[in-house]
Amino acid sequence: MTGSSDADGPRGSRVTGLPHPTREDAEVEFERTVPAPADRLHGRSRDRIRAIDVLFEADAKGAEVLDVLSERLRRTAAQTPLPQRARDLVELYAPHAADIDEDLSTHSRDWPLHRMPAADRAILRLGCAEVLYGADESGRGAIIGEYTKIAEVLSTDDSPRFVNGLLQRLVEVRGLLS
């Protein structure tokens, strides 16, 4: 397409494949999109995202999460090695995986685990592990807030509210789950 005279319109502008207001009598209204700035996330959130990546990959492959973790430790898809904090979070999740899935399924009203977006499922699994098995009571609110922000960056527009609500619900019934 580049270099071809057919790909260039008047005054050398490139054809993008989108309808142009001067062509085909099409009215085009572009929505302003703003990419989610990664600088909103600090180091702990980035470590959580790297751990979420491991859970997401294990889910997509239908593999055991610890097998995927060991593979990521040998050969990482990222430019940097998996941070120790991310490893610790995956290892916190792994022994509780079945219980976490049961808790999520039980308390996510009208959303079976298999119908959730895969990113939400990974975020919720790791968030649940951290708030139920890894955090003391004073830190749970901040952790839920971080997973909500991660959902805002990684998933759909409705995901932050869903993640926040479900993690809050799990914390509220924590005494019943333990």
- Helical run tally: 8
Order of helices and strands: HHHHHHHH
* Rg for CA atoms: 21 Å
Mean pLDDT: 80
* Secondary-structure class: mainly alpha
- In terms of quaternary structure, the protein is single chain
- Sketch the major β-sheet: none
Distance between the termini: 61 Å
Give me the count of strands. Answer: 0
Helix % is 55-70%
User: What coarse outline follows from CA principal-axis ratios?
Assistant: globular
3D structure, described in words:
- The chain has helices at residues 43-61, 65-74, 84-93, 97-107, 118-134, 140-154, 159-172, 174-177.
- Helices cover 56% and strands 0% of the residues.
- 28% of the residues are buried.
- The protein has eight helices and no strands.
- The protein is mainly alpha-helical and 178 residues long.
Lay out the secondary structure:
Blueprint: H1 43-61, H2 65-74, H3 84-93, H4 97-107, H5 118-134, H6 140-154, H7 159-172, H8 174-177
Give me some keywords for this one.
178 residues, mainly alpha, 56% helix
What's the gist of this structure?
The chain is mainly α.
